[in-house]
Amino acid sequence: AQSVTQLDSQVPVFEEAPVELRCNYSSSVSVYLFWYVQYPNQGLQLLLKYLSGSTLVKGINGFEAEFNKSQTSFHLRKPSVHISDTAEYFCAVSETGGFKTIFGAGTRLFVKA
Amino acid sequence: DGGITQSPKYLFRKEGQNVTLSCEQNLNHDAMYWYRQDPGQGLRLIYYSQIVNDFQKGDIAEGYSVSREKKESFPLTVTSAQKNPTAFYLCATLDRPGSNQPQHFGDGTRLSIL
After folding, report:
1. Whether the bond into B8 is cis, omega within 30 of 0
2. Which residues of B fall below an 8 Å CB-CB distance to A?
3. Which residues pair with B82 in a beta bridge?
4. Cα nearest neighbour of B58 on chain A
5. How do the pLDDT tens digits run along chain A, 113 residues long?
6. B57 beta partners
7. Which secondary-structure segment (H or E) carries B85?
8. B92 burial type by CB count under 10 A (0-12 exposed, 13-18 middle, 19+ buried)
9. Rounded to an integer, what is the distance from CA A105 to the centroid of its chain?
């Protein structure tokens, strides 16, 4: 069975500092990987996705993530955060050809001035 | 604009009452999903439907029911059997089952007990 672990429940960081949100997954088959962002009282918006090919994936708002198959990780990074990046971030995994997406518990990013 | 509309945005339930959450999409997507979100627990799958007139239970289906009579609509009923209904409910769609594309989400309905 698939599972997703987001290693930090909360990450406080100062504005303009770099940030990494960590995600590990487990699956016995090939997977697709996603990062979503959620602002208060809203749905989830896609930040980026890994389907195949290059392991470094670039997304919206300056975010990027790197797929590491040997470590089964898909960490999200941004070199310089803004106050507006304060939100909850979810890592998700789908098995190729599967019908479900499994979501991590979320990481709340606080960007401080 | 193509999208997913969830209504109402806020909903209150009285003891012993059934309430229905609406989810409508005009993306022409085949698959639709209902998730429950509680603080610190991520998203948990309640029900999903891959095609009209067919749906399957997710991980936490007890106390909930759904229907899929039209491609565009996938309403969720929270029954009186759901003893802890207070949560944020999210509806999502996927273009087709097994697709490599991400799910699209509505803006959610927040349900509280009166």
Report:
1. yes
2. 4, 6, 9, 31, 35, 40-43, 45, 48, 50, 58, 88, 90, 92, 97-98, 100, 102-103, 105-108, 110
3. none
4. A100
5. 789 999 999 999 999 999 999 999 998 888 899 999 999 889 999 999 999 888 999 999 999 999 999 999 999 999 999 999 999 999 999 988 778 899 999 999 999 99
6. B47
7. none
8. buried
9. 11
CA–CA gap between residue A85 and residue A78 (Å, rounded): 10
B18/B30 Cα distance (integer angstroms): 27
Residue that has been written with the tokens 């890994």 in this structure:
A50
How far, in Å, CA of B113 to CA of B63, rounded? Answer: 15
Joined together, the tokens standing for residue B108 give 């959610």
Q: How far is B81 from chain A (nearest CA, A)?
A: 25
